[in-house]
Design goal:
mainly alpha, single chain, Four Helix Bundle (Hemerythrin (Met), subunit A)
Length: about 150
């Protein structure tokens, strides 16, 4: 049986690959390719964030009685990252290369720090706190549109 840690970390690596595809498209392709790559990454991140916010975090909070701790911090970080999504798409569409690079660098740093906290702290706590059936239902939801 796969764990929250294993499957959600795998989803992080898939997003890393999509992030690299955005960077590669910006260097080599037309803006339309970069925008397509960005839209793929954004959809992946949104799905991941929503799965955490709507399924994983509430299940963890219910199981532990902890609602103001790590899940609150992760939700705040999701909000901060989402605030970069529209400006990033607009900068890509406008061909503002320097702005795109700055926004991508900011998002990358935020994602790396965020993912480390989840992978090393929150996900293992979820694996300990949640029943097997809960973990399976949550990981099925994550896999529903991730591929």
């Amino acid at each position: 049986m796969s764990t929250i840690t294993t499957l959600f970390t795998r989803d992080h690596r898939r997003a890393d690959e999509d992030f690299a595809a955005v960077e590669a498209a910006l260097l080599t392709g037309p803006l339309a390719s970069a925008l397509d790559a960005w839209e793929t990454l954004e959809a992946e991140l949104q799905h991941h964030f929503l799965t955490e916010e709507e399924a994983l975090f509430p299940a963890f909070e219910t199981a532990t009685g902890m609602s103001g701790g790590p899940t609150e911090a992760m939700r705040l970080e999701h909000t901060q990252m989402r605030e970069l999504f529209a400006p990033l798409a607009a900068a890509i569409e406008a061909g503002e290369t320097e702005s795109v690079r700055d926004l991508l660098e900011t998002l990358l740093v935020m994602l790396q720090q965020h993912n480390m906290k989840e992978e090393n702290v929150l996900y293992p706590l979820c694996d300990q706190a949640l029943a097997a059936a809960q973990r399976e239902a949550i990981t099925r939801r994550l896999a529903a549109t991730s591929s």
